[in-house]
Amino acid sequence: MVGLALKDQGIDVVAVGNGEAAVRKISDIKPDLVLADVFMPVRKWLRVCQYVKGDAALAHIPVILLVGAFDPLDEQEAQRLAPTRRFEKPFVPPDR
After folding, report:
1. How far, in Å, CA of 52 to CA of 57, rounded?
2. Which of 22, 26, 30, 65 could pair with 86 in a Cys bridge, judged by C-beta atoms 3.0 to 4.6 Å apart?
């Protein structure tokens, strides 16, 4: 849903199915932004965030964590890894 909303705004979106594929793709294309879901399979969001923040060539890329309003989240781990921003799902689109 997020990808479709961004595409509707003319933003190029590259989606992958899990965290391992995400780190490979991030290294390949060096995107302007990374959206990581809290329930990403294979390599969890925190490992993706560590990967981006720990690589000097990628550390400038903002990482935004997508988390459901009632999803469990280790707040201490989130604070330590410091994603650039966190958005809660479901999203409420702004009035046009």
Report:
1. 8
2. 65
